């Protein structure tokens, strides 16, 4: 079926093709440009040439491709008019018109009759891309294997309905419902031969090879290149500079506009990177970009894969490894041998959020219909399972031997990730910046693989960073253009560099791969990946890819998306990657399966063949039989000898230091930070934690299910004493009681946790702290578990700590404690960033912040010890061990590498033990490193007189392998008779510690333990015990190790699946506190990673050596400690065998020995301590110490006896040396490379890994972590760039823009791992200390400092035997009270420094008065006592409890309380103007007021009636004047009033209105006029009283209209200080025998009870003032005996505004205004009554009140203290004026310097100063006598009393000359007249005829130091004539 357009000139395209060809010729310098006519005419098949890649054999297919793929031709494609189907026939896709199913998947097992000469083929329908339609076609019309000899035309049958004889493919395509939009062609739609497999099922076979198909890929790529490099000027795109090439289909997230604007500028210029492309005669500025990017990359390590929930149902004996799954969006190829195996993501693998995996309709995760058969015996042939990484486009089905391949979508995910624009870069505009192209992604991937070494494994983070850097670099010019160009013209800026095209991709990739010695092989496919995969399998089976590690398969079709995949064929790389896909559970199952089934026996038999002397067991038995008696006796003697010596008083090792438990400065600092955060939560306005409501602390510590960790936590808890301190337990503490506070997260945890929750609900006033220690362990979601359901502990943290009861309980605070917080720092975390506490840095700018005698040695210090210039690297790898493992891995491909590594290491340890015991030939079968460990271990106990030794930790994560290693090493030790030399301990997380009885007895002696049944339960208790601890378990679970740890052997950790947490956790086993003495004076260490949490890392200074401990190492290490600096280099080339590696080690070791002398000599001990360890060293080289020499340095024939004789020369305990230096750590080579390598910025590679298994990166386009990041910045980085996977417990904690995603009572404490730690130096001690200080703070919060002062001037009080009331009287009798004389004397202790008020009746002892008034006592702090707050206390704004939320106005159900501002005016004649006040009235309090109906104007405040009685109502309105105490004022009277309804008004100054309203939104506020902003408390009292009287009048008028008498309106108000905190009542008991006998008790009562009692007083309206005592702990019994007094009242008073109508407060006063008012009230003849059985407690508040007034100079703003002597000055002088009210200056001056005015009055208490109508404080050494000038006032009798002075203060008209003449003055007495101005001063002197008796001088006139505009007060002094 030919093309009807063949041979015709396509004139409509001629101009376009000509133009493009010219452009391509100008640009291209390596490809032969396509001739124009070869594009426009049909070319003959013979003219096809591989050199002319643009040619195509079949022009029909070219045209079809163009039309179908939508080429950008200027003419539209000619559509095909399909013949309409007959009526009534079936038109369903996949069915023929007769309605029969033709889909291969449906009829593969049916019998189909095929006529002779016909073949079954698969046809592709465009509507069913994933299905093949079965057809029977005459094979004569099909091509042969070379694509030749197919007849033109068609002949076929329908296998569905059986219809035969279709002679035209057009007719046949209609019948099978292909529904084509172009002319049907058999070449396009008949794709595959169909064949029967072994089971007889029909399956997809090979591709039908139509002619020219193999060239289609190149031709379409070339066409794309030539037609899309530049767009025609007349193109109608949005940008003339933009390409017409459509975006890849995967970029579905790009904005609509960007689909047409795939700017060429945003792609890396591959042509520029690999060929010298020239643009406009200039070299592209980005030419070297790619090389520059790649040059900074580090060697990678590991690539892994995503999770999968299991294999789907099979199709065609195979399945698409990316087919959708019901539970996960991504899948893996599974191993059919392990049912339900779950593939988790590998350690360092990037994954994609679910939302990001939603792709286009034809998801590339779905395999295409071309099946690829995996060859049988592939694993046996290749010695490894190839790992296939799906790349771009469609991936074919796999069938056949699926067990021998592994398929992963990880690379596809990475590509998709890196094509999604990050929000961080959208600011530059999505229309100009596009993602990196698919071609560039593939090219960068190839180049990355090319530069990998043979022992390296790809790391997905590396690839992501390559893409990131490439993308960012390619956009630098765009961003600059965008910033510099005119915005309107920017769209016309031409592209600088063209993108990599499909044609260029293949040969550029091949060019890159050509330089790597066949490490990377490129396979180009013509049609689909199936071809390339089939070819790859063929090459593998033929053995042609032996040197190839990576096969890149490309299928780059013209004008369509690229298909690609990458196959890992390298044996080492494939093994590591395949093993990295196993979950921890599957990993253990796989290893266990290999152990149980005996697959490892082949490994054992192989080891047997290694030894020329025979099997190692045979040698052991032979050695045992030959040396049984000799060895056991000698060794036991050497061990038991020290014990015997101890008994007879020989030298005993004193290094076993049982340090006492103490709090370190670090821990105290962390505990205080935790407390600070708790207080911040409580102080916030969110009301999430009310610390004031808690009385005590309780806690529960949750630890992982490790028995050792559990016992270790119990040990710390027991010795901390915290249970006794918190009052949770009594003195006799038992272990069973301690266990109640520690919960092991195992199956039994739920019972203990349920009790904890019940306790929290039953004790709402107890704060429960839930401490989640080792918090990064088990973060699995309770709903999405990767582990088998039999493991009930999985997801337990989520089930318990995230349960609803914990989240909602207001009295539970959760504290997560971990060294690796990264998994808790995701986008969905429950923990607010403000609630994170990080371990403090020990140094700041070189200053030691915490004077510790121990220094932390963590990961950063270990890394730094590997740098050049450090003598002994503490991190090492074993090259010979690694070489042997790699060789065995190739020999045994079916064994897991963990099995191989474990058996090799066991073999090495066994051989090393045998070598040390005399079998010197075994040295050749171990490594130098293992021999060093073993010899030091065995000999360590012999160096100490007490037998102390070293600990070696052998980390074997897989529990079954650990058990095998234990049994093997135990057996070898017994055979070598070393059972008393050192112990072998199997550390299983689920069980305790088991050690031999002999070693238990040793430990009991060392630790002075007398308990017969004692045995060690923690590793810390093994200190000093020589032992190998086989540490098993997939992850360490918080177990601490003793200080005697010397070697940490991590060679068996799972290095194929690594994340940052796993790496740091394993290396954290060696974290150590070393004695600071070993540091030299330059001890500032470089900060990297977690050891200094404030810095991720810092610059590396050559002169700052962490390992200044080298001196100690060199001095104290045993002879086998080797330098190994060069050998342990990360760039060291692995030897091919263990023996070669050993020899190589020796050669390099000798070089190190020679070069290390000068480096080490400066750290040497005195010469007497130096030990000559080599007999052949010259005397000049004696500075080489034992640690820098090797017993095998010159030859391998040294015997163990030589070393033993040397070791016996030393006398220093090995454990002592171990405690002064960190352990030595051995790592796998793969891990070592990651740990020690850094990126181009100096950032350690390990820190840029994925932080945790169950989280994933939010985007590949994330910024690099910074080298100098603090812990807080790291947290914010992870919070932005990581998201939890569905298996993570935080997965469902979606933020969704709400702030409530953070739990308000959850904190995170992170600190470095400190496992070598006996004395809880680390986080455990810190959080226990936190509990201690939190408990103390809670007690402190429930207590307040109240003034506790005895009443003053008691001795002046008139002693009288007359008592007016009985002690039991509850109310005063009105008539009796009138008979009680008024006590003028001030007894309130706050007025201790005030002037005494004298009466004639008082007799004052001058000496007593002066003695009680010592000058130095005047300024001392007032005495207070700490009192527990009762339930009736008044609170400040920091109190938040549920009961008073609504009262406070912070109820979350409501908005902030709405308030209205109301003006209230009244006139006052004394001020001479109208007073206007403002009320702020919340809506909830408007019922207390009366408003006018039309305009809602405030009319009055409602007052009750005298006769009203209610238990829940307080009749008296309470007014509280306050300033400067919006936070600390005690205005919350809800609890004090016991919930009773009351009216409370805060009286505030205008400038403080807003702040008070913010803190107290539900309180009524009375705002003083602005003229009173600088006034004192007198103004507030004055306005309160006048307002209240005016309101009383208004209420009387209002209620009189309702028939209520005016005298029935309640006339009292309460004026309370803002520091009244609690109220007490005295209860008198008359139960004694005699009537006069009674006892009394004082208890706290509610304010409601007191006020209601006082309001119920008989004839209460006849009292003008009612008050109560100020509380004191020593209450005077006389006051109890007389329940009511007539005296001064202060602080809390009930004022009758009706009776005191004509008595005013002095609005000018700042101090003593209450005393002044009391005197006025009494002189007016009104009753004052104090209830002595009631008392008020006043809280000490350090801010506000009187302290808010500061006196400073008006000229200078600098706060300079001004002495009181400067408060006054002479008028018209040049004195410095002060910025303070004149009245305040006057009062303060008189208080301190009144003796200048009244010299005769000083300490002359018999002759007081006469004060008329006022009381002013003249200081404690001057007494005053108050008299009132008002007519009919009550005054003391002054007859016979001589005054020493006269004080006239602002005299009014009632003071006349005749009044003053009644009083008599001493000769020389002084007068002081005070007036508002100088004129008033002169008028007063004249009016009062003062010059008759007093002499004045001009120099005796003064004024306060105020400027004229501040209206100073003027004084005039005179002397009595």
Share in β-strands:
15-25%
What profile does the largest beta sheet have? 12 strands, mixed
- Measured between the Cα atoms of the first and last residue, the distance is 145 Å
Write down the Rg.
48 Å
In short:
By secondary structure, the chain is an alpha/beta fold. The protein has 53 helices and 57 strands.
Keywords:
alpha/beta; 1921 residues; twelve-stranded mixed β-sheet; 53 helices; elongated; 57 strands; disordered N terminus; single chain; eight-stranded mixed β-sheet
Describe this structure in words.
The protein is α/β, with parallel strands linked by helices. The protein contains 53 helices and 57 strands. α1 packs across α7 and α30 packs across α31 (928-940). It is elongated, with a radius of gyration of 48 Å.
Topology:
Elements: H1 11-27, H2 36-40, H3 59-69, H4 104-107, E1 118-125, E2 128-138, E3 156-158, H5 169-175, H6 186-189, E4 190-196, E5 202-207, H7 216-228, H8 270-274, E6 278-279, E7 282-283, H9 289-295, E8 318-319, E9 367-374, H10 378-382, E10 387-390, E11 395-400, E12 406-408, H11 410-418, H12 438-450, H13 460-474, H14 476-484, H15 502-513, E13 520-524, H16 529-542, E14 550-555, E15 563-568, H17 571-580, H18 584-596, H19 601-610, H20 616-647, H21 665-683, E16 696-703, H22 707-720, H23 722-725, H24 735-738, E17 742-744, H25 749-762, E18 766-773, H26 796-801, H27 804-808, E19 812-818, E20 836-838, E21 843-844, E22 847-848, E23 854-857, H28 859-864, E24 875-877, H29 879-891, H30 897-916, H31 928-940, E25 951-955, H32 959-975, E26 983-987, H33 997-1006, E27 1027-1031, E28 1045-1049, H34 1060-1067, E29 1072-1075, H35 1110-1116, H36 1138-1155, H37 1157-1161, H38 1200-1207, H39 1214-1219, E30 1224-1227, H40 1229-1236, E31 1255-1257, H41 1271-1281, E32 1282-1284, E33 1306-1310, H42 1323-1341, E34 1343-1347, H43 1374-1379, E35 1396-1397, H44 1406-1411, E36 1424-1428, ...
Parallel strand pairs: 9-11, 10-12, 13-14, 16-17, 16-18, 18-19, 19-33, 20-33, 24-30, 25-27, 25-28, 26-27, 28-30, 35-53, 41-42, 41-44, 42-43, 47-50, 52-53, 52-54, 54-55
Antiparallel strand pairs: 1-2, 1-4, 2-3, 4-5, 6-7, 8-11, 10-15, 14-15, 21-22, 23-29, 31-32, 34-36, 37-38, 38-43, 39-40, 44-49, 45-46, 45-50, 47-49, 48-50, 51-56, 55-57, 56-57
Helix pairs in contact: 1-7, 9-13, 12-15, 21-42, 29-30, 29-36, 30-31, 30-32
